[in-house]
Amino acid sequence: MSDTEQIWFGTQIRRSPFFEAVQRWGARSFSVYNHMYIPRDFGDPVQNYWNLVENAILCDVAVERQVEIAGPDAAAFTQLLTPRDLSKMKVGQCKYVLLTNAEGGILNDPILLRLGENHFWFSLADSDVLFWAQGVAVNAGLDVTIREPDVSPLQLQGPKSGQIMQALFGDEITELRYFHLRELELDGIPLVVSRTGWSGELGYELYLCDGARGDELWERIMEAGKPFGLAPGHTSTIRRIEGALLSYRADMDIDTNPYELGLGRLIDLDMEANFVGKDALRRIKAEGAARKQVGLILEGEPLPGPNTTYWPLYKDDETVGKVTSAVYSPQLDRNIALALVAAEHAALGTEFDVKASGETRVARVVEKPFYDPKKKSATGAS
């Protein structure tokens, strides 16, 4: 960092247990997510991308705060919050779920972890679900305790993450299946380890259960990863768009419903259990989604960086949608984007004009995800 560069931190924004460590390891800028600082820049984002897809990166994602649901009625209450059927979810399993409000709008798209028969964590995207869950509980008539525990995750992601995990935990860690978890210790540091992540690559999340040991855990992982080319990093916008992984508040919000995103598979309207938004989602399904999410290729020179505003999409001079996430992919050598468009304009091959960074480009609807559609990288499938 040059003498003229400054990062100002205040007491009103929380710091993760890895805050000092990531600064030592070169974090150059931060943003705020779930009321906590998250490192966003360790230098060149393209190099961060190649570090991820060729070796491995370690990311401070303690901003993924946990909402813990516990107590005799925890299973019933957890089901009340999500339209995904949890009746067959086993202890030690993780699921990608949606949380919806009474109108069917998406409040969050967390990973749900089941640690016990009546013990769950929602590992959150950026919204205040703790307050929402506590509010729902007031009139639910169920015996539950809802709190934010002292839990802070790291993401270890990339094709060599498995080898690094073996160096840390031994060969038994290779038996951990995709979207499953284990409670482990590393040098006495209490952890929950899951084979999940937000990268589209093979990866693990290590949930630190003692915030006082964050610095120690970070250094221990970086040391174990040195022979494998492990680098400090940040969640890669490039790779997540390639994999069509959604970002809450960017690609969806409270005014977006699951059917617009093609996530009807996460909704079970026929299950006996009730959940918030069931009637609204039944109506939306019957009427059909007015918008649909699509993948786009944007013609022209490589975009200078990700979009920082929504870019309008035009068809015959009429605004018919917006680009929600866009970036240049060095691996595909294409500008790729996710967009929400009017349903009647969502067919493959449809072309639009898009106002991108001050210039008009042609955008064309294509299949998504753009890369690794069968998720072979993340699942370890050959």
Verbal overview:
There is one protein chain. The protein has nine helices and 21 strands. Helices cover 20% and strands 31% of the residues. It has 382 residues and is an alpha+beta fold. It has a six-stranded mixed beta sheet, sandwiched between helices. It has three domains: 19-64 and 150-240, 2-Layer Sandwich (Gyrase A, domain 2); 66-147, 2-Layer Sandwich (Alpha-Beta Plaits), CATH 3.30.70; 290-382, Beta Barrel (Elongation Factor Tu (Ef-tu), domain 3). Helix 5 (161-169) packs across helix 6.
Q: Which structural class is indicated by helix and strand composition?
A: alpha+beta
The CATH homologous superfamily of the largest domain is termed Probable tRNA modification gtpase trme, domain 1
CATH topology of the largest domain: Gyrase A, domain 2
Mean pLDDT: 96
Kindly report the spatial arrangement of strands forming the biggest sheet.
12-13-14-11-3-15
The count of DSSP E runs of length 2 or more, i.e. the number of strands, is 21
Could you give a short account of the major beta sheet?
6 strands, mixed
SSE run = HEEHEEHEEEEEHEEHEEEHEHHEEEEEEH
Helix content: 10-25%
CATH architecture of the largest domain: 2-Layer Sandwich
- Low-confidence segments, given as residue ranges, are none
Q: In the residues, how many domains can be counted?
A: 3
* CATH class descriptor of the largest domain: Alpha Beta
Give Rg in angstroms. 21 Å
Give the distance, in angstroms, between the N- and C-terminal Cα atoms.
42 Å
What are the defining features of this structure?
382 residues; alpha+beta; Gyrase A, domain 2; Alpha-Beta Plaits; Elongation Factor Tu (Ef-tu), domain 3; six-stranded mixed β-sheet; 20% helix; 31% strand
